[in-house]
Amino acid sequence: MGYFLQQLINGLTLGMIYGLIAIGYTLVYGIIGMINFAHGEIFMIGAFISIITFLVLGLIGLGWVPLALLIVLLATMLLTSVYGWALERVAYRPLRHSPRLAALITAIGMSIFLQNYVQLLQGARVKPMQPVISGSFRMLREGDFVVNLSYLQILIIVLTVTLMAVFTLVIGRTALGRAQRACQQDLGMAALLGIDVDRTISLTFIIGAALASVAGLMFLLNYGVIDFYIGFLAGIKAFTAAVLGGIGSLPGAMLGGLLIGLIEAFWSAYFTVEYKDVAAFSILVLVLIFRPTGLLGKPDIEKV
Amino acid sequence: MATQELRAPRKLDYAMLFKEAGAVAAVVFALTLSLVGFRTTDVPGGIDILLRFDDVFAATLLAFLGRAALILLREGRLLPVLLTVLPFGLALAALLFYDLSVPTQDRLVRFLPFASLVVNWLLAIFALIIAGRAAWGIWHASSRKGAVQREETMDRIGARVQQAARLLGPLLLGVAIVLPFLPYVDRRLLDIAILVATYIMLGWGLNIVVGLAGLLDLGYVAFYAVGAYSYALLATHFDLGFWICLPFAGIMAAFAGILLGFPVLRLRGDYLAIVTLGFGEMVRIILLNWYKFTNGPDGISGIPRPSFFGLPFTANPPEGTQSFHSFFGVEYASIDRIIFLYYLILALALVTNIFTLRIRTLPVGRAWEALREDETACRSLGINPRNTKLTAFAIGAMFAGFGGSFFATRLGFISPESFTFIESAIILAIVVLGGMGSQIGVVFAAILLIGLPEFFRELQQYRMLAFGAAMVTIMIWRPRGLLAHREPTIRMFPKGAPAEEQK
């Protein structure tokens, strides 16, 4: 029971990270119907900007953890969203009316480019970081086994829930959210009704990148090591999460992320660690075969 | 120059110029500040930060100047831009190439504008690109129609190349056949040729799946891996020769294709791409972790080399047997084996090509192309989409399997490292960049993407960076591929028949 509870906590924390990345996939797919393959790389860049900001703050001697965290959070969100914006502007906008395959190839090319860009600049070795937040909250004791909820996990959960709340408000209540939902329904009609489609799409990429960068920061804090290759697997798993939840659906992305996180945690705990990625991919295949619209997705009506 | 004067350049709006160029420079500054300005370096016991603001400054300045030059081009100031940028770009490029060819101590580093070699290269390339655009604009006397005109020109070139393929094909083939015996062809060039031919073969194999049947497969490398491991395991465990294993490897890969394809081929487009990607990764992870069977990350070594119909390429054959050179009574030369490998992959590639060209005209090939265009219509005409797709998937996989066993026998060693997603992406890029469904396009794309970077081994570390950038640039420039001109495989009426007849 204690072991189960511990895995549940670990899985939920991991799932929140995947969920935040998955939102970026689902938003972009909802509006322009393409898989932003380079989104995993944006997450990786967010993690790198976080570690750089931490190191710089350490050098100038800013030691108070809450303030440092806040600065890192804002810096990574701001700078990573520039990458998200530039990605759309440079690689995707010229191809908006091209065959979908062209956009996917560009996305893969961008992904390769960004990976090698970071590798060249920052080195290929893994980057370790001292834990910033230590200590934990003892929940349950069962013989020798103690169930811990670390302060870091609390932070991840609180931060994700807060971001999700803000994000839901933005989508549901603001003019930007309305424009976004209109674009999702019908891009051409939205443009005719005076919505600045280019601006809306740009903002979508900025929001997606900002959320992914927070996921990158959490990944860095949670695992303590990053390298230039983390974006690939995390990106695929987050995409799996988006598909699992029903691509285009925002609550679906979060739900899918949590499920993928839980599956991964339980699979590693009760079966084999080596095949945890296979488990995630198998889930993707199974979902697509038996419920192609995902858990919360709307059925896609095919017109002839 | 007469036409130039018709469009007298407008008065330059300097405020607009500074605003636009400044905005681009600001974005580049924000992009580079973090990842370029602060470098994490490995020190014992952790990492440290190295400040490189000079590079950030250089990038920002370059972005500003580059954007300003482009704005000037747009405003019709072609000649001044060309005259300032071209000599500069040429001089810089010449200097950089000179530095590449001489030993380190003789390099003229102090003449270079920036400390970082990469920045200098980028500067030279950008300068030449801008000069090229200016020259193009002057040549056509209108920089405005440039994009449309270029697209039309490229389409015409594409169509012409396709028509010329009848002539060009045999010509290229002739060059390919005599290549090992041409002067200046050494071991290194031959190795590159073998590599390019391997990718051409894989590209042609994938072209069946992507180009003809329209199934986006991002996990093609899985079948390549299955072929390579089939050959390696059969050869090392059962002591079978290359020629016996080759068909087996193909069958195994085709079987894997059917096995993987069966559940997922109902899916369309992007979904299929991601699922095949997942399968590709699954195969790699299984190869990595199934230690008893595949030897895990250590890989399989000691894979036998191919023999010339039973005659091995060894200097000293065991007593009582003959090797290639003793049988034919020629002097032993180590390059013989390389030449043989080259012809082997050339033959395999040609088989793939001829097979594809022939099967396109058969009912199943026509069904593939019909399915690519409209699945719903095909279904209503009585074509079974799943079986048709499965044949394409299996046949594509079979050729990947052949390619895989060639890969294994060439290197004599395989490990899961060689079968990462990036390989799938490279093969797919070759197919798509060449123009989907175009056989000759695959050849050009493979030479461009695989052969060209091999010559710049000195810039090894920037190879993949340039590869990614090239993929993006070519796609933006030609979204349908370099030689995207599609001729119908069959026609109801002969080409050029009067319009009334066609009704």
- Report the radius of gyration of chain A as a whole number of Å: 19 Å
Sheet/helix structural class of chain A: mainly alpha
Mean pLDDT of chain B: 80
Query: What is the CATH C level class of chain A, in words?
Result: Mainly Alpha
Q: Name the helix and strand elements of chain B from N-terminus to C-terminus, one letter apiece.
A: HHEEHHHHHHHHHEHHHHHEHHHH
Structural notes for this entry:
The complex is a heterodimer of chains A (304) and B (503). By secondary structure, chain A is mainly α. Chain A has one domain (2-290): ABC transporter involved in vitamin B12 uptake, BtuC, CATH 1.10.3470. In chain A, 73% of the residues lie in helices and 6% in strands. Chain A is globular and about 65 Å long. The mean pLDDT of chain A is 87. Chain B has 503 residues and is mainly α. Chain B folds into 2 domains: 2-144, no CATH class; 164-292 and 343-477, no CATH class. Helices cover 69% and strands 3% of the residues of chain B. Chain B has 20 helices and 4 strands. In chain B, a hairpin with a 2-residue loop joins β1 (38-43) and β2. The radius of gyration of chain B is 27 Å and the shape is globular. Residues 1-6 of chain B have low confidence and may be disordered. At the A-B interface, α2, α3, α4, β1 and α9 of A face α2, β1, β2, α10 and α17 of B.
